[in-house]
Design brief:
Elements lengths: L3 H12 L17 E6 L9 E15 L4 E8 L11 E4 L4 E8 L7 E5 H14 L5 E2 L2 E5 L2 H6 L8 E6 L4 H5 L6 E5 L2 E2 L3 H10 L5 E8 L2 E8 L1 E2 L2
Antiparallel strand pairs: 1-2, 1-4, 2-3, 3-6, 4-5, 5-6, 7-14, 8-9, 9-10, 10-11, 10-12, 12-13
């Protein structure tokens, strides 16, 4: 099987095609202009382009069969057939892969950050399958405003808004409303910090989560599983 570089060289030689450059999704900012490219509904005439902005980052959505974390939310129109197509920045770099929509709402589409896609592709090439680990919570970073709204005594940590059924978090005893303070003794300043730390761990690895529950600290030992 040809490697990645030889395949790109062949595409350029035979078809005159140049591979699109991949961007850095960690640099995405809310309000940034992006373009979604795809072929919705398979209509005649080829691919389409729709424009929009990055509405939010680090979104988590759940369907009947799976949960998707750390997504880019955009109001660029994404329709059936756009999935797998690129979300492109103003300078032409791919910053995310169009993935999902909320069918009962308009202007709410989601894309997988390109950094996550690159990591997943590397794991798949190496192991034959993505080995990303999973905790199984949906949470919010406790900003000053959110902490005040929930009458929280702390800021900068992660408020657990929902624990997924059958997840490692549920099995360990973590519940909705817990505030995650530390992981393996290290402080967490945001839900992004938590996601990054979890993804650096391997399936089957044990971690220690310290939470604040009803004003008292509690510690839970969690065994991570592979992300479903």
């Amino acid at each position: 099987m040809p490697n990645h570089e030889s395949l790109l060289h062949e595409l350029h030689t035979v078809f005159g095609l140049t591979a699109a450059e991949l961007g850095d999704s960690n640099e995405l900012r809310v309000g940034q202009r992006v373009y979604a490219i795809g072929n919705p509904f398979g209509l005649a005439g080829g691919p389409t382009v729709t424009s929009g902005v990055v509405s939010a980052v680090n979104r988590t959505i759940e369907s009947e069969s799976e949960m998707l974390e750390n997504l880019v939310q955009t109001d660029a129109a994404i329709n059936p057939g756009n999935s797998g197509g690129p979300l492109v920045s103003l300078d032409g770099k791919i910053v995310a892969i169009n993935t999902a929509i909320i069918p009962y709402a308009q202007g709410i589409g989601f894309a997988i950050p390109i950094n996550s896609a690159k990591d997943c592709a590397g794991e798949t090439v190496k192991n034959g399958v993505s080995m990303r680990s999973w905790l199984g919570i949906i949470g919010l970073s406790l900003t000053e405003d959110i902490a005040r709204y929930f009458n929280s005594p702390v800021e900068g940590e992660v408020l657990v808004t929902r624990v997924v059924n059958g997840s490692p978090a549920e099995d360990s005893g973590i519940v909705d409303g817990d505030i995650i303070l530390r992981m393996d003794g290290a402080a967490l300043n945001s839900v992004e910090d938590l996601v990054e730390e979890i993804h650096q761990r391997k399936e089957g690895q044990k971690i220690r989560i310290t939470v604040l529950r009803r004003g008292r600290e509690q510690v839970f030992d969690v065994t991570l599983t592979r992300m479903p």
